Amino acid sequence: MKYIYIVILLLGLGIEARADDSLEVEKPKKESWLKRTLRNFAEIDENYVEPQHYNWSAMLQATYNYDIYKLASDGQHNQKLTFAPEPSWKAGPYFGWRWLFFGYTFDLKNLNFGSNKQGLEFSLYAAQVGVDFFWRRTGSDYKIRDVDLGDRFKDDFLEGRSFDGLKVGITGVNVYYIFNHKRFSYPAAFAQSTCQKISCGSWMAGLGYLEHTLTFDHDKLEKLVEEAQEISDIKLDSSLMFNEVKYFDVSGSVGYAYNWVFAKNCLFCASLSLALSYKNSRGETLSNEDRGFDFRNFNVDGIGRFGVVWNNTQWYAGANAIIRYYNYHKDRFSANNIFGNLNIYVGYNFGKRKRYKQNQ
């Protein structure tokens, strides 16, 4: 099974625009509206943030992916099911020019063709704003990690078993604004395109949109129960007996991020954002009269980012983790999804810019 995972990182668009050689030389002509907007948009305090010195970059990165999905009912038996695939490691090369960075990673465990698990992620870490786009389609390689179907069922009979009856699709975009962008640099921690020189933090605010599709074959799960313990009268709660659920999510978020410069060229970043999300959905249950999947309510979601990096402007190495939590809750049914990735990387910048050549 081959898992294709493509990451396109636009590294520090705003900061790169400020460091562009075309903006470094005073021109007698009046500055264009576009250049003036980019310069104001990307303005930083160089006492706190060191801009990028180079035009080109090459990097090797290894990525560890994880995904946990939990379903629960508040029906007759208060049943709970937790699913998670086997974690996977991927690795591959990346190559960038200024603010544009492309990469391709290969699944180190499953290199054969034919997998239906796919993922695409795109992130822009600029001085003033950030953008996340993610598109995920899981395969059918989930395993049952935890199960509670009632007092008569022994949970350990199913734990660890493969279950191909669950498929998840997620498409989402988040846009956020960094208030203290002149002194706090997100790209220093997650894009390696700048260097934070003095510890500093910033509040953030953002908007998000997400579409989610959950397909669940409850018949397959009931057959596994019968095979495991030869008990045919244990049934799932009606709110778990669905075919497909689709919902969309509109959210507003507030968060805080802090860059800690704990040694020369060394940085640790921690960031947490909480979002108030309005969810609207409808699902297909076993009974047409059972509308337990009508979501029209508010829930709290979250995203955490953590990174540690060493960067002397030419060489850099580090690791970062991004964790996303989405919560869907109704009186009779709830679904919780946690997914994210851990990246470990080492890279080299080259092709020094004219501004820094002159300062040598």
At a glance:
The chain has 360 residues and is mainly β. The protein has helices at 13-19, 33-41, 186-190, 218-229, 354-358; strands at residues 4-11, 49-50, 54-73, 80-85, 88-97, 100-107, 118-125, 129-137, 142-148, 162-163, 166-178, 195-196, 200-216, 242-263, 266-285, 295-311, 315-329, 333-352.
Provide an overview of this structure.
- With 360 residues, the protein is mainly beta.
- It is 11% helix and 57% strand.
- It is built from five helices and 18 strands.
- The chain has helices at 13-19, 33-41, 186-190, 218-229, 354-358; strands at residues 4-11, 49-50, 54-73, 80-85, 88-97, 100-107, 118-125, 129-137, 142-148, 162-163, 166-178, 195-196, 200-216, 242-263, 266-285, 295-311, 315-329, 333-352.
- Strands 1-6-5-3-18-17-16-15-14-13-11-8-7 form a 13-stranded mixed beta barrel. Strands 2-12 form a two-stranded antiparallel sheet.
- A hairpin with a 6-residue loop joins strand 3 (54-73) and strand 4 (80-85).
- The chain is elongated.
**Total number of β-strand segments?**
18
Poorly predicted regions: 1-25, 285-292
Radius of gyration, in Å, reads 24 Å
Mass-distribution shape: elongated
As a percent range, the share of strand residues is over 45%
Give the biggest sheet. Answer: 13 strands, mixed, barrel
Q: Strands of the biggest beta sheet: in what spatial order?
A: 1-6-5-3-18-17-16-15-14-13-11-8-7
Count every helix, treating DSSP H or I runs of 4 or more residues as helices. 5
Query: How far apart are the termini?
Result: 51 Å
What structural class results from the helix and strand content? mainly beta
Q: What sequence of helices (H) and strands (E) makes up the elements?
A: EHHEEEEEEEEEEHEEHEEEEEH
